[in-house]
Amino acid sequence: MKEALIVEAVRTPVGRKKGSLSGVRSEDMAGMVLKELMIRTGLKPDLVEDVIMGCVSQVGEQGFCIGRQAALIADYPFHVPGISIDRQCGSSQQAVHFAAQAILAGDMDVVVAAGVENMSRTPLGSNVKGTELSSELTSRYEIIHQGLSAERIAQKWKISRQEMDEFSLESHLKALRAQKEGRFEREIMPIPVQLPDGSQIDVSKDEGPRPDTNLEKLSNLKSPFLENGQVTAGNASQISDGAAAILIMSGDKAAELGLKPRFRIIARSVVGSDPTLMLTGPIPATAKVLAKAGLKLEDIDVFEVNEAFAAIPLAWLRETGADREKLNPCGGAIALGHPLGASGARLMTTMMHELERSGGRYGLQTMCEGHGMANATIIERLN
């Protein structure tokens, strides 16, 4: 039986908005992680049969098929194709799914799944600027801002402002601890950045975690979405820059090349959810992927649930009853940042390294997505 195995994964540090990575073009940054995959494995890029690149705002530097451009920039031979896909925040997690499906179908043996977003250079919404939603859509569904969706989720699940701020602080503390313990060092490739004075530095650390964050500061932030609202910049994900890439291979090809795969992709799910609440998809996606894998919630050692807003993982915890101690052990997007198209591959990369560090066997990743969707993936660590 065909298997889809993960051989290697790497990511850039996640840069803050207008931070150290804001001067790096998106396609160049994406090319860097593609090239690093080949360096770390010692493989020739001509073995790659496709590059599937998640990217949300496909305009400007991120337009014109950034997946293809990045492969060429990474010095992959021109016979290696590339494609860009948009499943909103889950774009590069969907890239992992498409790569695994190509391998399981027998169409390919070596595929790179990746993602990129430099939100400093291509702001959120750039690709829809000047347009309005079709009345054919808005007459059928109430389409609201994601921040308002998060407000409604907090109300529906009776999640208080204090709970969300406490979750946010917890995310920062976990990320800071992970940085201090060096947990991210293996997964991050340093990115060379040119300074205004002409000198160059290597950026190798996520810029999002804030050592000075505390509950008092978080509680004083105002909501931009509702008067007296609960959702604030402090309990929502950060606007960020970054890229990540994952090398996925069939078991037969890995054996032929003498490689030792690190993980097996054992189940995948994707669901649609209420497009007004929009962000609740991880709840049914989790149930669906567990059923596909024949596993129970208790079998999972690490959960990565994207922290688009604190209300999302908190509602997910309420509905699933999962062990909170297993959730986002190295912090999440509230602390580390959320470079949209890159986040799925970033979460997967971090989850892999945390499972290896802790000795866990199974990891489950899930992400809410715009217009009401969610992906979920279960991977198994290989001894």
TrEMBL record:
Keywords for the protein's UniProt record, in alphabetical order: Acyltransferase, Transferase
Alphabetized GO MF terms: acetyl-CoA C-acetyltransferase activity
InterPro entries the record matches: Thiolase, Thiolase-like, Thiolase_C, Thiolase_CS, Thiolase_N
SUPFAM superfamilies, per the entry: Thiolase-like
Record carries keyword Transferase: yes
Domain of life: Bacteria
CDD domains on file: thiolase
Coiled-coil segments on the chain, per record: none
UniProt entry tagged with the keyword Cytoplasm: no
Thiolase C-terminal domain span: 260-381
Main location: cytoplasm
Residues at the catalytic site: 89 (acyl-thioester intermediate), 338 (proton acceptor), 368 (proton acceptor)
Catalytic activity: 2 acetyl-CoA = acetoacetyl-CoA + CoA
Pfam families documented for this protein: Thiolase_C (PF02803), Thiolase_N (PF00108)
Intracellular or extracellular location(s): Cytoplasm
Domain Thiolase N-terminal: 5-251
UniProt similarity note: Belongs to the thiolase-like superfamily. Thiolase family.
UniProt-recorded name of the protein: Acetyl-CoA acetyltransferase
Biological source species: Desulfosporosinus acidiphilus (strain DSM 22704 / JCM 16185 / SJ4)
